[in-house]
Structures are given as C-alpha cells and as structure tokens.
Amino acid sequence: MTKPDKDPDKHRDKDPDDPKGLIREAYKLDGISEAECRSILVDWALSLPPGADYAQTAARLASQAPRDADHPMTALLAAASAPSLNSHRRRGGRAARVTGLAN
Q1: Which of the 8 DSSP states describes residue 18?
Q2: Assigned domain for 7 exists
Q3: Distance between CA 27 and CA 89 in Å, rounded?
Q4: 58: buried, middle or exposed (CB in 10 Å: 19+, 13-18, 0-12)?
Q5: Would you tell me which of 5, 32, 34, 62 could form a disulfide with 72, CB atoms 3.0–4.6 Å apart?
Q6: For the chain (length 103 residues), average pLDDT per consecutive 10?
Q7: Residue 12 lies in a domain
Q8: Contacting residues for 40 by C-beta, under 8 A, at least 6 apart
C-alpha cells in the first residue's frame, strides 16, 4: 500500500533555472528575512551547473517571480541580475605581477 503524496510540488517539472526549487520555496515563506533570502540565494547559485550564467539565470527568475515588491528575494534577484560594474577579471600568474610587457 502506498501513502498519499503530501507534497503536491514534489512531482512538478523541475525548472532548470531553479533546479532545487529554492527560489520558488522562498517566495512561499511568510516573514522571511533578507538574510535568510541571501543564504537561499547563495545555496541556489551553488546548485547551478558549471558554466551557467548566474546573472542571466537570476534575470529569468526575477521575470518569473511573483510581483511582490516587498519580498526580500525580489530585490536580491534584481541585484543579482544587474550587470557587474567591475567586469574585468582577476589576472593571475606573471601577468598580474609584471606590468608594461612589450607585445
């Protein structure tokens, strides 16, 4: 005899942008704080596949999110999807230590 499934979202199609359903579940929690949402957002980012574009994925989730401007996850997704002001990457090795190399 099988038990009835108590979680109706369990068999819902997985969203590739939210593989664990963390963002969706965060919106269901009443009274969640910004710090808790930030923690969830970090866990969500770590669950993305290697090479995934974090900002584009956050932008897609922000566009699908409930239109609750007061929810802390809404502001965090908007911030995560904004283009980075510091777009250059860290340089390592000799190129970082030596300046003015002739090409």
Answers
A1: B
A2: no
A3: 33
A4: buried
A5: 34
A6: 52 79 93 96 93 92 82 92 65 65 55
A7: no
A8: 22, 23, 25, 26, 73
Structure tokens that stand for 18 in this block = 């939210």
First to last CA, the chain: 74
Is residue 88 in some structural domain?
no
Q: Which residue has the tokens 């239109």?
A: 67
How far apart, in whole angstroms, are the C-alpha atoms of residue 59 and residue 18?
12
Spatial CA neighbour of 16 closest among 44, 43, 55, 39: 44
Q: What is the pTM of this model?
A: 0.67
> Reduced to 3 states, what is the DSSP secondary structure of residue 39?
helix
